[in-house]
Amino acid sequence: MMRTDAIAIVDYGAGNLRSVVHAVAHAGLQAVVTDDPAVIRNAPGVILPGVGAAADTMANLRSRDLVGVVHDVIAASTPFLGVCMGMQALFTVSEEGGRHGCLDAFPGTVRRFSPGLSIPHMGWNRVHQVRPHPIWDGIDDGAHFYFVHSYFVDPGDETIVIGATDYGVRFPAVIARGSVVATQCHPEKSAAPGLRLYANFGRIVRGTLPSGVPASEEVA
Q1: Which residues are known catalytic residues?
Q2: Whole-prediction pTM value?
Q3: How many domains does the chain have?
Q4: CATH code of the domain containing 160
Q5: What is the residue range of 107's domain?
Q6: Is residue 11 a part of any domain in this protein?
């Protein structure tokens, strides 16, 4: 199959596809919603969105033969954006509803927020930029993004965290390594900063922004 110009939005039955599609289009990006492994592998960029439970997400990815596809596009250094559950699924294991193995693209555990907090963490919260990355281009440090989640990522490698948010604990709001960026927040529900993030991802796909920066470089 020939490579196309359309970013592939991975369809594994997630419930927030429509809002992601609208936001991506509003950001001026061409995209196709697909569960076709060949289309995803040949796309110039890939978005893995998601809401819901880790066990269901992994079961749906497996049933559509997409687990290997995700690993393949990451290994190929294809620009990749994970959103919410699409971020959590990249880690080793989730404690949601027991312990469920995830994609293990990055070491780490997805943990539930501590008792005493209002769960889910839902609404607007600040994202603090703790490391530089092209995905932040034109986005203010401390900009508000929209969150809906009961679990957060506890990474095995803190150097992948480029954005953090406080909710009882400081947790990773955005991670990045190589060609991969992933957000716990929902950029598609985050007004201008979220649309800018999608637009920046599109610029990374087109090569007008670099894909990343050394993880050792920190925001002053």
Answers
A1: 84, 186, 188
A2: 0.93
A3: 1
A4: 3.40.50.880
A5: 7-206
A6: yes
> Could you tell me if residue 65 is inside a domain?
yes
Which amino acid makes up residue 58?
M
Query: How confident is the prediction for the chain on average, in pLDDT?
Result: 92
- Closest by CA to 46, choosing from 89, 8, 84, 99, is 8
pLDDT digits (tens, 9 = 90+) for 75-85: 999 999 999 99
pLDDT band at residue 16, thresholds of 50, 70 and 90?
A: confident
**Does any domain span residue 21?**
yes
Sign, CA torsion 75/157/47/51: positive
Predicted pLDDT of residue 213: 56
**pLDDT confidence bin for 215, thresholds 50/70/90:** very low
In a domain, 97, yes or no: yes
Question: Token pair 């990815």 is at which residue?
Answer: 61
In this structure, the strands spanning 161-166 and 128-129 are antiparallel
User: Which residue's structure tokens are 């679990």?
Assistant: 151
